[in-house]
């Protein structure tokens, strides 16, 4: 009898898992809550690390496609102070994929979606609950009344995972407030801002706050305001004037990034799990990505989710049985994620500290043979 595998969540981790299972002749269904691949914006750029995200794509047979879509020049980054003075300017080696090339999240997701057979992703399937079945496996209930059964259930369903409740309870803690804006067609409409941001990332660093921007593959700019976590209502950040008041005294050339945003700011809470979160093994069910280890967004989340998917798929493909595969994956994942989660928490705290500028200069200090300059 075929093993019925259900993957709750069609993000990067879940799709990587489904792709590598497919390459190994193992069928799975990805249940995704969104209505379609274009139902909502997928966010900004991701830098894929050689040891995690790029490794996962190689195991998925998609390294060539990635290289055709990624932008090595997107690795360029600058750190400025509130007066607009350059503190760090890193310029990558032209055309090199040896570092952490950038790719738009939407492009990467499409790359993975297009690598899967038609029907693998079941759209409009938001998982509400999963319950053990008397004969083994799980019964799934989706929004709208849809139901399904599976033998193996993998929670790739993000921060508020419905699958996680089968394994453990954990509290999510706020670590920051992020307010986002988008500037479309920046080269034509806002050439000075396009030049300011460059082809990669820009961080303008003050005390306990950062004004950041990154260039998108379509020529637009994603702007992000990062603030320390507070109990302040998110509605307080929905107006540009509200945001600009937070940057009083900053160079107007920097705050122009806020003024140029197309549409109102979009605020959200940034949360994280305890860095030591673990669960006791339970047959037939496990977690990957943010469902397993939600971390601050400092460059590891998507990379680790994709590596989770690749490592779990390899274990399931190798056998000898799903339970042994899941247990081995969990032990390896916990050992790998612990130090990364702790590092991510430290970096997040550093970036929103009173001494963030000098701390970031030290953090990005060029090592020998790196193509970086500190002005």
UniProtKB/TrEMBL annotation:
GO BP, one annotated term: response to antibiotic
Localization per Swiss-Prot or TrEMBL: Cytoplasm
Tree of life domain: Bacteria
Names of the cofactor(s): FAD
Catalytic activity, reaction form: a tetracycline + NADPH + O2 + H(+) = an 11a-hydroxytetracycline + NADP(+) + H2O
Enzyme Commission number(s) from the entry: 1.14.13.-
Entries under InterPro entries matching the protein: FAD-bd, FAD/NAD-bd_sf, TetX_monooxygenase
Entry GO terms, CC: cytoplasm
Occurrences of domain FAD-binding (ranges): 4-181, 284-332
Record: residues binding FAD: 47, 105, 290
Signal peptide: none
Binding of NADPH, residues: 40
EC top class, as a word: oxidoreductase
One family name in Pfam for this protein: FAD_binding_3
Single GO term (MF): monooxygenase activity
Keywords: Cytoplasm, FAD, Flavoprotein, Monooxygenase, NADP, Nucleotide-binding, Oxidoreductase
Gene3D superfamilies with a match to the protein in the record: FAD/NAD(P)-binding domain (3.50.50.60)
Functional description taken from the UniProt entry: An FAD-requiring monooxygenase active on some tetracycline antibiotic derivatives, which leads to their inactivation. Hydroxylates carbon 11a of tetracycline and some analogs.
Domain commentary: Consists of an N-terminal FAD-binding domain with a Rossman fold and a C-terminal substrate-binding domain.
Membership in a protein family: Belongs to the aromatic-ring hydroxylase family. TetX subfamily.
Protein name per Swiss-Prot or TrEMBL: Flavin-dependent monooxygenase
């Amino acid at each position: 009898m075929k093993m019925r595998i259900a993957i709750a969540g069609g993000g990067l981790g879940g799709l990587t898992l489904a792709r590598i299972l497919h390459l190994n002749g193992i069928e799975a269904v990805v249940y995704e809550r969104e209505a379609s691949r274009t139902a909502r914006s997928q966010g900004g750029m991701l830098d894929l690390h050689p040891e995690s995200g790029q490794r996962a794509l190689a195991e998925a047979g998609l390294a060539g496609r990635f290289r055709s879509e990624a932008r090595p020049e997107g690795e360029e980054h600058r750190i400025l102070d509130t007066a607009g003075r350059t503190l760090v300017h890193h310029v990558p080696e032209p055309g090199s994929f040896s570092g952490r090339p950038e790719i738009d999240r939407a492009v990467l997701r499409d790359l993975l979606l297009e690598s899967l057979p038609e029907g693998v992703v079941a759209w409009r399937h938001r998982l509400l609950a999963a319950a053990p079945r008397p004969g083994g496996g799980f019964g799934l209930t989706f929004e709208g009344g849809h139901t399904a059964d599976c033998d193996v259930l993998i929670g790739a369903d993000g921060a508020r995972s419905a699958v996680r409740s089968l394994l453990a309870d954990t509290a999510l803690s706020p670590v920051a407030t992020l307010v986002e804006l988008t500037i479309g067609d920046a080269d034509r409409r806002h050439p000075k801002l396009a030049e300011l941001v460059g082809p990669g990332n820009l961080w303008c660093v003050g005390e306990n706050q950062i004004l950041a921007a990154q260039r998108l593959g379509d020529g637009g700019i994603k702007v992000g305001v990062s603030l320390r976590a507070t109990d302040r209502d998110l509605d307080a950040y929905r107006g540009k004037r509200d945001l600009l008041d937070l940057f009083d005294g900053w160079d107007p050339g920097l705050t122009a990034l806020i003024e140029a945003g197309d549409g109102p700011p979009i605020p959200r809470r940034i949360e994280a799990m305890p860095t030591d979160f673990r669960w006791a093994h339970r047959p037939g069910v496990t977690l990957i990505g943010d469902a397993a280890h939600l971390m601050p967004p400092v460059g590891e989340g998507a990379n680790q989710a994709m590596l989770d998917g690749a490592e779990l798929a390899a274990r399931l493909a190798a056998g000898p049985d799903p339970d042994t595969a899941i247990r081995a994956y969990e032990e390896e994942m916990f050992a790998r994620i612990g130090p990364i989660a702790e590092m991510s928490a430290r970096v997040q705290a550093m970036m929103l500290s009173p001494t963030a500028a000098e701390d970031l200069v030290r953090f990005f200090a060029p090592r020998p043979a790196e193509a970086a300059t500190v002005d």
